[in-house]
Amino acid sequence: MKIIYMGTPDFAVKSLEHIFNEGYDIPLVVTQMDKKKGRGKKLQPTPVKEKAIELGIEVFQPVDINSDESYHKLKIIEPDFIVVAAYGQILKKRILEIPKYNCLNIHASLLPKYRGAAPINWAIMNGEINTGITIMNMEEGLDTGGIFLKQEIPIAWEDDSQTIHDKLAEVGSYLVIEAMELIVSGDSVLTPQKHEESSYAPILYKGVGSIDWTKAARDIYKKVMGLKPWPSAFTEYKGQKIKIHRVEVEERDHDITPGTIVDAEPDGIKVAVSDGFIIIKQLQFPGKRAMNVKELLLGKDIEKGYIL
After folding, report:
1. Residue 169, class by beta-carbon neighbours within 10 Å (0-12 exposed, 13-18 middle, 19+ buried)?
2. Interatomic CA distance for residues 30 and 84, integer angstroms
3. Mean pLDDT across the chain, nearest whole number?
4. C-alpha dihedral sign at 123, 127, 133, 139
5. pLDDT at residue 36 in the model
6. Which CATH number does the domain 209-296 belong to among 1.10.1740.10, 3.10.180.10, 3.20.20.70, 3.10.25.10?
7. pLDDT digits (tens, 9 = 90+) for 197-245
8. Which residues are CB-contacts of 11 (< 8 A; sequence separation ≥ 6)?
9. How far apart are CA 59 and CA 6, in angstroms?
10. In a 3-state reduction of DSSP, which class is residue 105?
11. Superfamily, domain 2-201
C-alpha cells in the first residue's frame, strides 16, 4: 500500500513513524517550509522533516500544496492514501482526489466538536472531561468530512496540553492504520458529521493566556493546564508579564477582592479568585527561567496585598 504522508509538528511524528514501522510504502513526506527559530534565527526543520530524513524518506516542502507543481508531483506517485496530520495547509479538491482510496485526516478531537487548529488546548480550557482522535475523510471544508473511526480518552485533572498531545499522538498512530485496513477490505463505515453540534478551536495567540482573576478557581486552573507549555497563562505584576506554569486550587468562600495576593510563602503564592484561591506553585518572570516559588523567594520579594 502506497501512502503520501503530510504533517508538520511533533503531533504528526508518531503516526509517520508507526506507519513506516508497520511496513507501508511511504514514497513521499510533505511538510511545511523550514522556519527561523531561536535567538540566532537559524532555519530549523519541522519535526516531521527530521523524522522523514531519519527514516530515509523523500521530503517535499512546497510553499503552496495546491500549486500545479505540487499537484503533478503527488499525482505521479499514484498513492493509495494521503494521510494528513496537522499539516498546516488546506487541500483543494484536485489534491483530495489524487489517492485511489481516500485522503484521511488524523484530528485531535471528537469531531464535530473542536474543529480547527488547537482542539487539545480548547478542550482542556473549556473543562471537557474527555477528548479523543477522529479519523476523518477529508473534504474541502474545515474538518467537516465524514468520520471513519473515533477513539475517546479521558482528560484527567492533572493533564495539561502536552500530556494529552502525547496520548492522542499515540492513539492516532494506531487508529489511522486501522481505518486504512478497513477501507481497503471494504468493511469501513463512513458516518457524516452532525454539523449542528460542531464547535471551533481557533489558533492560539499569546494574548489568550491572560488570567481573569474574577473567574472561578477551576476555570483558571484549566486555562493554565490548557496553555501549558505554550503560549502559557500569564498575569501582570508591577508592570511585568509573569507566566504561570503550575497552580493548585483551593475552593472556599471569602470576601477578598479577586486578584489580591493573600500570601507569598515557599509552598506557594496564594491569590484570591471568585470562589476561593489559586496557589501559584511555579512561575516565570521576563528574561528568567521557570522556577518554583520557594526558589523565587530566595531572591525576590512578592508584595502581599498587591492586586494582580
Report:
1. buried
2. 9
3. 97
4. negative
5. 84
6. 3.10.25.10
7. 999 999 998 899 999 999 999 999 999 999 999 999 999 999 999 999 9
8. 85, 86, 108, 165, 168, 169, 172
9. 10
10. strand
11. Formyl transferase, N-terminal domain (3.40.50.170)
Task: Give the mean pLDDT per block of 10 residues along the chain (308 residues).
Answer: 98 98 98 86 94 98 98 98 97 98 98 97 98 97 95 98 98 98 98 96 93 98 97 97 98 97 97 98 97 96 97
The SS3 call for residue 53 is helix
d(CA 226, CA 220): 10
Return the residue matching grid coordinates 534565527: 41
- Cβ 115 vs Cβ 199: under 8 Å: yes
Residue 263 to residue 269: CA distance in whole angstroms: 6
144 strand-pairing partners: none
| Closest listed residue to residue 28, CA positions, set 18, 20, 36 | 20
- Cα separation of 49 and 58, whole Å? 9
Residues 6+ positions from 69 with CB-CB distance below 8 Å: 62
Which ranges of 56-142 does DSSP label H, i.e. alpha helix?
68-75, 93-96, 119-125
Instruction: Decide the pairing of beta strands 25-30 and 59-60.
Output: parallel
- Grid cell, residue 17, equals 513513524
